[in-house]
Amino acid sequence: MRSIFTSILLSSFLFSIQGVIVFNDETIIEGEVKTIDNISVVITPHGLNFPEEILLQSIDSVKVNNGMIPVADGKVFFYYKNGEFSEAAQIKNTQKFSDEASYEYVEYILVPNWSLNFYTGYPLPAPFRGSSFEEFDKGNMLYGLSLGSPYGFFAGDFYMNVIAEFAYYNFEQTKGGPSFGGPAYQIGVSPGFFIGNTSFSVTACTGFYTSDDYDSVGVSDVTGDIIYSTKSDFNSGFILGGSVDIPLGEIVLEKYGSVQLFKPLNIFIGQFVDYKIFDGFRLRDIEAQLSAFEMRITGRSNLIQKRKNSEGQNQATYWIDMGVSFGYEFDYGGHPKIPDWLKWPF
After folding, report:
1. Whole-angstrom Cα distance, residue 228 to residue 223?
2. DSSP class of residue 225?
3. What is the mean pLDDT of residues 299-314?
């Protein structure tokens, strides 16, 4: 009896995979998935040393860290036992779990996560700038670092989450003179939707924007140049943008997933010593990590309030910029998606 219990306990440690269970009430449990069958899912939650059996009737979906979704919409599509996946009875075709696997029968669901995104773009020339902005005819690269939160509204293929962003912009004059720009601190929402695996999103933010405005106070007696009085203020503003997601990680996996990255190096090292670095390692071995990378083609319109003119009238300026955004989506615990052979230590 003791040997049977020991073998069961040992198998639960040997044959497990990191995953998350999403319940019908949208709460989740993270941990090591032991088995999946047509009755229940056995998982050892993080922080516990013993497995728990969760009946399938209370589960909406199960997602594991290799990118598979064995359970979706309360239906089992793949069983998991002894470290191997096998197809459930609901799937009639003979597709296999491989690089070319096609999960057309699986309904992918939106699971809110934290994400970190870096944006860089360039302002478009006139007429994509306001008339009160004509003197700043030299634009520089714009930068933004944003944090996407899992908080918001999610329904089917539609989502809208809360985001925060730090941005920097700077415009100059080719004839000299003060510049216009500085840091910006903003918060907003990012609604979007999926069509297949392609995501379309909108960014709407408001906040505080640096406006290095100025007034001329005279002419230099020495050089004849205009002397300016510059004042840096934080003014209100608004940014509205749109993005189209390019599945960069999936493209890389499709083209180069079977490539053994370290094979040429190991061949070279093998001429001198009997040692290999990550022997047999392929890009598909870090599929979950590569799939977490996002690339977007982005366009943004910017409207920033300026100081009042000499007549006491409110002023504002606008411009449109185009660029790219690179992002990384974190896992359910807010940790980077680390491969199994590089366990996240916290």
Report:
1. 14
2. P
3. 73
CB atoms within 10 A of CB 51: 20
pLDDT at 114 over 60: yes
Tens digits of residue pLDDT in 251-291? 888 888 888 888 888 888 888 888 888 888 888 887 777 87
Name the H helices within the chain: 2-14, 248-256, 263-269, 287-291
- pLDDT 10s digits, 64-77: 887 788 998 888 98
Report whether 108 contacts 147 (CB < 8 A). no
146 contacts 164 by C-beta, under 8 angstroms: yes
Which of 280, 319, 283 is closest to 299 using CA atoms? 319
Query: DSSP secondary-structure letter at 221?
Result: T
Instruction: Note the pLDDT of residue 249.
Output: 78
Between the CA of residue 137 and those of 116, 190, 235, 306, 346, what are the distances in Å? 32, 31, 21, 17, 50
CATH of 115-329, one of 1.10.3370.10, 3.40.1190.10, 3.10.20.90, 2.40.160.20: 2.40.160.20
Q: Where are the domains of the chain?
A: 2-87, 115-329
To 10 degrees, the CA torsion angle through 168, 239, 194, 58? 90
Q: Specify the pLDDT at position 299.
A: 94
* Domain 2-87, CATH among 1.10.150, 1.10.4030, 3.30.310, 2.30.30: 2.30.30
Strands (E), the chain: 17-23, 28-36, 40-45, 52-55, 59-64, 71-72, 75-76, 78-81, 84-87, 115-123, 138-139, 142-155, 158-172, 180-195, 198-219, 226-246, 293-306, 315-329
Query: How far is 42 from 37, CA to CA, in rounded Å?
Result: 9
